[in-house]
Design brief:
Blueprint: H1 19-28, H2 32-42, H3 49-58, H4 60-66, H5 71-83
Helix pairs in contact: 1-3
Length: 84
């Protein structure tokens, strides 16, 4: 079997499907570097692109919590904006 690997930085990563929202929240919070450090700790031998996407999609709450991103604050801000 032929194995093809793609090497990229976290800034070059392009998420798809359910991971897009999580990735955007991390970018908006300015925590991409922290995400990279977390991934290096969790996956010292690297992580496949699909594996990263699944992590951001299906374990989004855990990832955001690890990075100190509180989703409730975002929801509160949206609710405050809706009131005006």
């Amino acid at each position: 079997m032929l194995e093809i690997k793609k090497v990229f930085t976290i800034n070059q990563y392009e998420p798809w499907s359910g991971a897009v929202d999580t990735y955007e929240k991390i970018c908006d919070a300015g925590k991409l570097d922290e995400l990279e450090f977390l991934l290096e700790d969790l996956y010292p031998d690297g992580i496949e692109e699909t594996q990263l996407n699944d992590l951001l999609w299906f374990d989004d709450e855990w990832v955001l919590e690890c990075l100190g991103i509180n989703e409730d604050e975002d929801e509160d801000e949206d609710e405050d904006e809706d009131e005006f």
